[in-house]
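WARN no homologs supplied; continuing
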Amino acid sequence: MHVDTPPPAPADDLDPTERLRVRTVFISDLHLGTPGCQAHALLDFLRDVECDTLYLVGDIVDGWQLRRSWYWPQAHNDVVQKLMRKARKGTRVVFVPGNHDEFARRYVTHNFGGIDVVEDAMHVTADGRRLWVTHGDYFDGVIQCARWLAYLGDQAYEFVLKINRFLNIARGRLGLPYWSLSRYLKFKVKRAVSYVNDFEVAVAREARKRGADGVVCGHIHHAEIRLVEGVLYCNDGDWVESLTAIVEHHDGRLEIIDRGVHAAPPVFAAAPVAAGTPAGAREPALVD
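OK structure emitted
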């Protein structure tokens, strides 16, 4: 069952040979400060991975929820401490604020505890590709044009997550695997599917305008690596339901890491992309 269960102790005693060693990690939509945040699973991932650069691609702390009701258990504090510890030990940690932690945009160009706060970033992969890193909320028409509707939708999403938790407690007692109601609704409702597609196209077009080969974003809680109108679109998912991140290996390959119960086979995006590959086509999936 996919629940936020306490991690095994001790915290950092994983055999170094078992750790995932990569060049770059991209994570977003942790939503610290909400009951939906899978903080213990996130801590496990952060302990298991070593990287040169770690991008926090927005919605790390959920200011919207914290303003409504304060929720901050020890596990969420542990995540913040772990991120700062990585920065102290030599990992370059870059924070690109999103809409839920937009308060941090007032501190762009500042450094807190070794973490750089930036509006966006241009990451160059080991194989020379330029990836624009942005949360993505600027390309969400609801956020930009009807903010009240975004707040309403956020509360509706939290309500669905509460139902989902009770539903999965019952499924667990019956021996059934975790199932996400919100993900089911998101990709079964025609209008929601259209919204996701419009978002992906808008972000990809902006990346092309900026002279980038691709974009890494979050915001819509759906991990993906694919071509969109000839631009490499990478979404690192979330740590509320998907439990996903994107990593860059030392040869420049990009991989979706899925720490959920039903982990999909790793998805790689290797350069160069073959000429004539149709927009929306996936890169070949390779299993380690």
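Confidence is low (pLDDT under 50) at residues 1-14, 141-150, 262-268, 271-288.
OK
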